[in-house]
Amino acid sequence: MSEINLLESVTAFLQRSHGHYINGVSILGQENETFSIINPASGEMIATVNQGGEAEVDQAMQAASAAFHGAWAQTSPIERGNCLNRLADLLLKNSEELAQLESLCSGKPIQLSRMLEVGASADYLRYFSGWSSKITGETFNVSLPSLKGEKYSAFTRREPIGVVVGIIPWNFSIMIAIWKLGAALASGCTIVLKPSEYTPLTILRVAELAKEAGIPDGVINIVNGSGARIGSSLISHPQCAKVTFTGSVATGMIVGKSALEQGLKRTTLELGGKNAAAFLPDMPVEKIVDGILEAGYVYQGQICAAAERFYIPSVHMDAVLTLLSERLSAMKIGSPLDESTEMGPLANKAHYDKILSMFEKARKEGCEIVYGGYALEGPGFFVAPTIVKANSAEDTLMNEETFGPIGTFLSYEDEEELISMMNATPFGLSASLWTNDMSKAMRMTSRIEAGFVWINMHTFLDPAVPFGGWKSSGIGREFGSAFIEHYTELKSVMVRY
Ligand code: TXE
């Protein structure tokens, strides 16, 4: 099969001058500096974007604050939900344009862009739309003395926290932005988004659709630029009440520290990890391999919840790695714009270099590279999907997040050893157990230190189910009703009558 034809609207959008989206208007900003957007499948520049500075940060934060106290505060909860629903409709109506743009910028295979970046984003918006009218407090019986017959009552209100700064990574530039935006807007907050400098384009188009959906100006703003240049200005801005961040642990720590130091600003940090997938001995080899492919290799492994440490019963190890090598060698690697592509390039050059250095590290430490471990010839940032057999739990690839298509494998003998190896990490975002013995899986689940545990599946998220990390993998939860606590402040009101 060959590449799909790019829509005219995609080509036209790429040719525009890009900058920021503030108070309902696309602007270029005051800085002269631009940065390039590189198509990771070709290594070629496809657009440029103006770098933001203090002026754009201030303009966006002021616009978000004015909308928070003005138009958005005057929009009823039901109408806020209607706005999110109309935006979902428009995402679907413009689905192909958004998916093509995203695949060009991120290297995501087009089918995944359609399904996750657009389809799932619309579902998340619809889920959050329902919550906008269901955010409630509690009432209380008060035990204060009544000397002259006076009575008391008390209740709590959940009030929107204010202007939220959303810092977005490059792996799901629409969907993760929608997670933050949906939660903020449903709660009555307004938002300033800072996309990744690698993938800043598609969300600019989404902001235009938000205006078409009737979301008032200033409710959604976007400032583009490098994190190092504008990250701290956004966090320290007096109008910033909360920061919601998804990205690496290292940057998440900087963001969290800075938010605390800048006046105990609230944070939701969804960080990386070194997620484990464990297969119990009752699983047949074929099923184990299907599970590994689902858990570790979708979208080149560039999913924060994906598994990178694979624990296999020693009796199955050789057969599993042989079959997995066969399946990886049959995988169709190629253009993200080819509908039959199963694996595209890594998302950017810096990440590609990091993955190549991880291959080297594995070799230096004497790990066996069972399959892959090299860059593919030709243009673009392509690498082979890779299988590494670790020597021990101490190997770098059993401990450091690669965020790439590298599964690292270790065998185990018994359940106790397995649980202790799974938990021996400073991270705790997700884990999976694969077995037909449900009672064993349920007993083991309660001992796993992770914010999300799957049984016989991995990586799938649903807007109704809270998502977030234990330990160094984060603070706070997205989705479910759990998000409400993180986007509202609790106010207690007591009345004497
Ligand atoms: O991520 P960062 P990068 C991992 C992955 C990758 C590595 C680096 O292994 O190779 O991180 O990728 C903004 N203040 N993950 O550099 O730094 C930045 O501009 C405020 C895992 O892209 O975490 C971007 O918008 N913001 C991960 C966002 O933070 C700052 C997803 C994320 O960038 C900032 C992505 C600062 N000082 C990468 N510095 C996951 N697990 O989900 C940067 N940023």
Written account of the structure:
By secondary structure, this protein is of the alpha/beta class. The chain has 15 helices and 22 strands. The strands form 6 sheets. It has a 7-stranded mixed sheet, sandwiched between helices. Strands 9-8-7-10-11-21 form a 6-stranded mixed sheet, sandwiched between helices. A hairpin with a 2-residue loop joins strand 1 and strand 2. The longest helix is centred in the N-terminal third of the chain and has 22 residues. The N and C termini lie far apart (75 Å). Ligand TXE binds next to helix 8, helix 9 and helix 12.
What is shown here, in short?
This protein is of the alpha/beta class and 497 residues long.
* Tally of individual helices: 15
* Uncertain stretches of 5 or more adjacent residues: none
- The strand order across the widest sheet is 14-15-16-13-12-18-19
Mean pLDDT over the full residue set: 97
N-end to C-end Cα span:
75 Å
What is the level-2 CATH architecture name of the largest domain?
A: 3-Layer(aba) Sandwich
How is the CATH topology of the largest domain named?
A: Aldehyde Dehydrogenase, Chain A, domain 1
Q: Indicate the percent of residues in helices.
A: 25-40%
Can you identify the CATH superfamily of the largest domain? Aldehyde Dehydrogenase, Chain A, domain 1
Strand coverage percent: 15-25%
Tally of structural domains: 2
Give keywords.
six-stranded mixed β-sheet, 22 strands, 15 helices, 497 residues, Aldehyde Dehydrogenase, Chain A, domain 2, seven-stranded mixed β-sheet, globular, 2 domains, binds ligand TXE, alpha/beta, Aldehyde Dehydrogenase, Chain A, domain 1
